Amino acid sequence: xxxxxxxxxxxxxxxxxxxxxxxxxxxxxxxxxxxxxxxxxxxxxxxxxxxxxxxxxxxxxxxxxxxxxxxxxxxxxxxxxxxxxxxxxxxxxxxxxxxxxxxxxxxxxxxxxxxxxxxxxxxxxxxxxxxxxxxxxxxxxxxxxxxxxxxxxxxxxxxxxxxxxxxxxxxxxxxxxxxxxxxxxxxxxxxxxxxxxxxxxxxxxxxxxxxxxxxxxxxxxxxxxxxxxxxxxxxxxxxxxxxxxxxxxxxxxxxxxxxxxxxxxxxxxxxxxxxxxxxxxxxxxxxxxxxxxxxxxxxxxxxxxxxxxxxxxxxxxxxxxxxxxxxxxxxxxxxxx
Length: 337
Hints:
Layout: E1 4-11, H1 20-27, E2 31-40, H2 48-56, E3 60-63, H3 73-88, E4 93-97, H4 104-112, E5 116-121, H5 127-132, E6 135-138, H6 139-147, H7 163-177, E7 183-185, H8 186-196, H9 210-214, E8 220-224, E9 229-233, H10 240-252, E10 258-260, H11 261-271, H12 285-290, E11 295-297, E12 303-306, H13 332-336
Parallel strand pairs: 1-2, 1-4, 2-3, 4-5, 5-6
Antiparallel strand pairs: 7-9, 8-9, 10-12, 11-12
Helix pairs in contact: 7-8
């Protein structure tokens, strides 16, 4: 992607000038920026900082006056220019720097024409716009990491994909596309993750290396060589019948022997930290439970109810070594011989 040409279109009304260096540095990873345009009413007081940044970064201002209250001419100008640039055939992709969902349809339209579309904005950016881009970068998170790495974890993380969801999609990718459904080069793995979560960036979670990011997941083991790093899926050491027995024991203690699926999943994960439905070949927790004869899934897959008497929970025994061989069959008399 290094030889691709990009058009950078910045919505000055929704992106602060303090992010300009981050925007240009990030976009440089994907290719060469041939268009740099800033859209907004630069006569407004809150856009004064952008006027100071234009010259030093060779950005062309596209002044837009708001002639009518409540109407945003900036959006219209960006969309018109984007289509003009698209039809010129001079670029391979676009970077839309904005936190405004009004550019969702524009991103979709550009991708329909084969363009690579990278979005950049803050965590407040609506999900619709983030998902319409091939990649989306959280500018405020990168700014936090650059200025105060220690405080990054204390920031609001509602817009960041949960680690549990990332782990689940990693397992799915390796199982469906990896070698023997068990292993995959982490370079390919990283590129495939962004196909599912366009806003995925390991730096959002405090990591600068993808390998370090992967090391935190209990279901994955990394194999390092001089030239490659491979991610391997670890098989679960918890038998499925032990999971069923634990589910029965948990539900037996509940009122009406019923519990919400999400709550049950949390209890199981607390009991067995390495528990992961994907290790058993399931993509949904409700599907795993539906294969247990002892329970019944409620309407809309929200609850699970016990339908069989409780069983004794069997916890997998730890492997031990012994100097004497185990007798597999035969009577005590045979053993003495």
